[in-house]
Amino acid sequence: MADSREAIDGAMIGARMPAVKTPAPRKGVAMEAVNLEEKFNQISDHWKPRIVAGLNDLHIKLAKVEGEFVWHSHADTDEFFLVNRGELTIEMREGSVTLGAGEMFVVPRGVEHRPVASAECEIVMIEPAGTLNTGDAGGERTVADPEWL
Ligand code: NI
Asked: Were both Cys, which of 3, 6, 90, 137 would link to 72 (CB 3.0–4.6 Å)?
């Protein structure tokens, strides 16, 4: 009952709200579908994220990964992972989470993690623009300014 009451209240609130305006297209971004397979086909290296879309202050990134990354954490942001192909294990001090294709996980901010893939794996990440792939760890695998695909 509580749920349906909330749904009705929500609908009434929505009815009083002005129509949402369609946002203007971002400059330089084509108004067309992003085909993940086509984007992943343009990536041949590992652990080097590319940006494929912006979402408010977030970037949606793609990467191919294989082997072990570095332990790191992001003090100020959660980090979204979705596996498109293959299998990714996100090691954390508290325990590991293994994702297969079509599975997702959010690493909470501040939680130390290390992505590991025993074979090549395609991942989608969502995180605030400017988030470093190596977080607080830094080092040679840091991609400070990911390219757009
Ligand atoms: Ni991370």
From this structure: 137
**DSSP string covering 18-42:** PPPPPPPPPTT--SS---HHHHHTT
Centre of ligand 1 from the C-alpha of residue 65, in Å: 13
Distance (angstroms) between ligand 1 centre and the Cα of 74 equals 6
Alpha carbon distance 12, 7 (integer Å): 9
DSSP state of 17: S
Of all helices (H) and strands (E), which one includes residue 14? Answer: helix 2-16
8 A C-beta contact, residue 51 and residue 59: yes
The per-residue pLDDT for 10 is: 47
Global pTM exceeds 0.85: no
C-alpha 4 to ligand 1 mean position (Å): 39
Spacing, Cα 35 to ligand 1 middle (Å) = 24
